[in-house]
Amino acid sequence: MFKTISDSADCEVRSVIRFLNSNNVKQAEIHRQLVEIYGENVMTDGMVRKWVRQFSDGRTSGHDEAQSGRPVVNDGLVAKVNEKIRENRRFTIRMLCNKFPQISKTVLHENVTNRLNYRKR
């Protein structure tokens, strides 16, 4: 009996799938071996099938791809927001949303009140 690995990274399991797939191991056998080594909760049969298909189609990386979405609000962006506020001290969050459409209204409000310490008067 093999020792079970309980704290595996997702990319590690995907690399094992890639390796076994490149050795022409069938998808069901790959799943069986993963469960045997990594435990019952490693990955569903459907997810293994998905990764086998992706590696067969030419994918080479087992790492997660960058996801789209709103950008992270960094210090530079907060400084630009502060600059716009200083240009017009009678600002509203809605006005700032028009100037910075890449930032959600909620995140913009949180940054203006919490990071920049501007309060409604």
Automatic annotation (TrEMBL):
Source domain of life: Eukaryota
Entry-linked InterPro entries: Mos1_HTH, Transposase-MT_Hybrid
Domain Mos1 transposase HTH: 13-58
Coiled-coil region(s): none
A Pfam family this chain is assigned to: HTH_48
Name of the protein this chain belongs to: Mos1 transposase HTH domain-containing protein
Species assigned in the record: Araneus ventricosus (Orbweaver spider)
